Amino acid sequence: MSNIAELFGSLVFNDKVMRDRLPAKTYKALRQTMRLGKELAPEVADVVANAMKDWAIEKGATHFTHWFQPMTGITAEKHDSFITPVADGLIIMDFSGKELIKGEPDASSFPSGGLRATFEARGYTAWDPTSYAFIKDGTLCIPTAFCSYSGEALDKKTPLLRSMETLNHQAIRLLRILGKTDVARVTATVGPEQEYFLVDRELYKKRKDLIYTGRTLFGAKPPKGQEKEDHYFGAIRPKVAAYMQDLDEELWKLGILTKTRHNEVAPSQHEQAPIFTTVNIATDHNQLTMEIMQKVALRHGLVCLLHEKPFAGVNGSGKHNNWSMSTDTGVNLLEPGDNPQDNAQFLVALAAIIKAVDTYQDLLRVSVASAGNDHRLGANEAPPAIVSIFLGDELTNILQAIEEDKIYKADHEDMYIGVKSLPPIPKDTTDRNRTSPFAFTGNKFEFRMPGSSFSIAGPNFVINTIVAESLRIFSDRLEKSKNLHKDLTALVKETITAHKRIIFNGNNYTDEWAIEAEKRGLSNLKTTVEAMPAFISEESIDLFSRHGILTETEVRSRYDITLENYTKTMAIEAQTVLEISRREIMPALAKYQSLLCESALAKAQLGEINADMEKQLLAAISALAGNLYQKAEDLENLLTQAKGVERLQEQAGAFCYQVFPAMQELRAVADRLETLVAAEYWPFPTYGDLLFSV
Ligand code: ADP
Ligand code: MG
To answer: Is 321's pLDDT higher than 70?
Structure first.
């Protein structure tokens, strides 16, 4: 592609297109809506809709859809064509403001976690003008929120948008107190780094586990894995490079600022990252990115695996969520400033985050809970399930000085909050700790716990809300202050003293940290089953309803959806294990054993010829095969029992503590068999085949 600048955003109804195509008055009204969250008048919507339609038709579109993000975690669309009949059997291409603003997809088949029983089944989608419309596969896609008719959120976007409003409101309050009167809006910004695996499509088709569950449920360790770490940042192989190039171009057309691409630690693992933007757009873009990553892979004879742990024994995939707050005047609130006001602003923002993460560590853990991510968190390549903050030595020392009423010497200058500026905090010294789940990286926090297949809406509405809650408490207090400098210092000091247990600059992967964390009273919620009750705790419900993010009903429905999703995933995995064991592995074992028998018998007929190999191997395989058969019976029994458990939380527990270990035990036997059976008899591609296929 010759001209990337021209290509970029060519399928997006972006600001430039709006400016070119909308009457000045309409454009201004729309900008206001986008920037300040003001409501759009219906007349204005009509004009916008018409301009969108004309533009989309010029680009070859024939349909439009409200593009939304139900609780399935992926996006949904229902296409309608622009055609509208007029007299004499003719049609015109039409699209009204009403159609732009509101849609009515049938909500009944999307997960609602019981909301459907309590409320009307019907749902509606509502245009989110803060995210640009775009064209995908000849269809004009309009980003929308998805709610029930009685107003309950049925999607991932609604609480995110609500949390952005709350964060804005509370941050502005605080900035006013600090004397910043020029700021009209504060927005959370996010840059998500996306990890993924690529495997050969033909091999993929032979793996029922990948097809049904997205991860391998069997597979012996190959002779070579990631031991030599020779893949990380390695030269990108031509086939992968062609894929990445194609992917980037598709994403650029959609106005997605994809920027970085490289090989990751595990063989056939890669990473892709865009330049950060507002959290709402970053979320939409990441959803689109995941969809297009998978689509483009097929064109290259590949399959893109977004599962958190597609392979045992090599690294899983995460999604590092880089988060900060930025003002409409272009200031990053987490940028340590070089003047006293900014110094105060930065330290207060930092204190707010420390308080938020410590107080609501369990909610952060909940926000990344899923069956897939359970395999990753706490495995030794990913952050543990314990939430802690990495700040780096310099910042930690500064906070310690504040706590101890000492004067921090920065570059031989005394430092006080709001009086002298902070010392420059070198970015490279803060970004060394790759093991921390929530790391300060110079001017943003990197939340490393989200799984690679996650919508980032969930983690971010939680971050936005808990930080807004800290800011609310701070503002309530400081608004009454008679001596701001004194009270500000006291507030920061108090906050650090109360919440410093959450700060940990060491290696999070060690067992010592788990012990130390327990001493500090930090949570270690190892599984989704252990984590989820925190979401329906009183504090959680209070928090989300206080800020208008989720009502109690909505919280409970999301709790149900997460656990239902967990049990369904586990049940599908267990069924897949049974199917592969009985219909693929056991028949292969029978065939190979008869080959060995034949050979041994033939040798016996010939007289005194050594048949030890056949006999010993046969004995070993027979024993394991019998064991495999029994383990499949056991698994099936436990699966049936788990399916029968009524209460959701207990059912999830049955899957976690009974079914899953049984799957693992069965797998261990099957994997051992894989190493004994002739390659040509083994019914599906091995780890070696999959990991080194591309
Ligand atoms: P890494 O070393 O982790 O790869 P990078 O500096 O490449 O770190 O940044 C990772 C991501 O963080 C990118 O998507 C980048 O755009 C994003 N990022 C940078 N600044 C901010 C910010 N202020 N707010 C949110 N995300 C940011
Ligand atoms: Mg990173």
So the answer is: yes
> Band of the pLDDT at 686, cuts 50, 70, 90?
very high
At 242-272, the pLDDT tens digits run 999 999 999 999 999 999 988 888 889 999 9
CATH of domain 564-691: 1.20.120.1560
Overall average pLDDT of the 671-685 stretch: 98
One-letter identity of residue 649 = Q
Instruction: Output the CA torsion sign for 151, 154, 160, 166.
Output: positive
Residue 103, phi-psi category: left (phi > 0), alpha (psi -120 to 50), beta (remainder): beta
CB atoms within 10 A of CB 117: 9
SS3 category, 75: coil
The residue whose CA is least distant from atom 13 of ligand 1 is 191
Confidence of residue 416 (pLDDT cuts 50, 70, 90): low
Chain segment 493-533, per-residue pLDDT in tens: 999 999 999 999 999 999 999 999 999 999 999 999 999 99
What span, in angstroms and rounded, lies between the C-alpha atoms of 427 and 81?
51
Mutate to test the pocket of ligand 1, among 256, 281, 322, 430 (most ligand atoms within 8 A of CB): 322
What is the CB < 6 Å shell around ligand 1? 189-191, 193, 260, 273-276, 322-324, 332, 431, 443-444
Q: How far is the CA of 192 from the centre of ligand 1 (A)?
A: 8
On whether the CB atoms of residues 85 and 106 are closer than 8 A, the answer is no
* Ligand 1 atom 17, closest CA: 191
Query: Ligand 1 center to residue 444 CA distance, Å?
Result: 8
What integer best gives the mean pLDDT of the chain?
Answer: 92
- Residue 566 is predicted with a pLDDT of 98
DSSP for 425-475, written as a single string: --HHHHS---S-SEEE-SSSEEE--SBTT--THHHHHHHHHHHHHHHHHHH
- The fold of 4-155 is Ubiquitin-like (UB roll) (3.10.20)
| CATH number for the domain formed by residue range(s) 194-314 | 3.30.590.10
| Gap from CA of 320 to ligand 2 centroid (Å) | 6
Q: Which helix (H) or strand (E) holds 528?
A: helix 528-531
Which ligand is in closest contact with the Cα of 443? 1
Q: How far apart are CA 493 and CA 425, in angstroms?
A: 20
Residue 486 CB contacts under 8 Å (≥ 6 apart), including other chains: none
The residues with which 503 forms a beta bridge, in sequence order, are 389
- For residue 568, how far is the Cα from the chain centroid? 19
Average pLDDT, integer, range 447-470: 98
Sequence spans of domains, the chain: 4-155, 174-193+318-508+517-523, 194-314, 564-691
